């Protein structure tokens, strides 16, 4: 499995999903124009397509591993765009999530 490809696809998926959700949030809760929500919906749709490009063919595995990427990406997005500052528990939880992603995606498996 190409580790770089997996990481890049997870990063693109995170930008699409988190960015899309953020745009909807901004429109609905922060008074941004309605079309921000429309852009958010399109970005969320793009996320669904990006996930299908992962080299592993198992939907459950990809989405489970992506969950950890989503956790870390969401905190990073909040730091970059909303002034969020994670506490030590956010950092510990994020590290645990990334360990989980690595185990799910890159753990040794028997050929089947």
Structural account:
The protein is mainly α. Helix content is 79%, strand content 0%. The protein is built from four helices and no strands. It has helices spanning 3-29, 34-51, 59-82, 88-106. Helix 1 (3-29) runs antiparallel to helix 2 and helix 3 packs antiparallel against helix 4. The model has no long low-confidence stretch (mean pLDDT 95).
Overall spatial form? flat
Task: Give the number of domains.
Answer: 1
Mean pLDDT: 95
Class by alpha and beta content: mainly alpha
First CA to last CA: what distance? 15 Å
Strand percentage lies at under 5%
Query: How many beta-strand runs?
Result: 0
How many separate helices? Answer: 4
The H-and-E topology, N to C, reads as HHHH
Which value, in Å, is the CA radius of gyration?
A: 15 Å
Q: In percent, how helical is the residue content?
A: over 70%
What's the main sheet like?
Answer: none
Outline the low-pLDDT stretches.
none
What brief labels describe this structure?
mainly alpha
Set out the fold topology:
Blueprint: H1 3-29, H2 34-51, H3 59-82, H4 88-106
Care to give the gist of this entry?
79% of the residues lie in helices and 0% in strands. It has 112 residues and is mainly alpha-helical.
């Amino acid at each position: 499995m190409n580790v770089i490809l997996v990481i890049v696809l997870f990063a693109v998926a995170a930008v699409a999903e988190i960015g899309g959700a953020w745009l909807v949030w901004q429109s609905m809760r922060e008074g941004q124009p309605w079309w921000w929500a429309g852009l958010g919906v399109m970005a969320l749709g793009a996320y669904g397509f990006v996930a299908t490009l992962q080299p592993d063919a198992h939907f459950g595995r990809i989405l489970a591993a992506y969950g950890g990427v989503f956790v870390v990406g969401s905190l990073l997005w909040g730091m970059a765009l909303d002034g969020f500052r994670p506490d030590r528990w956010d950092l510990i939880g994020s590290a645990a999530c990334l360990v989980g992603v690595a185990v799910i995606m890159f753990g040794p498996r028997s050929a089947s």
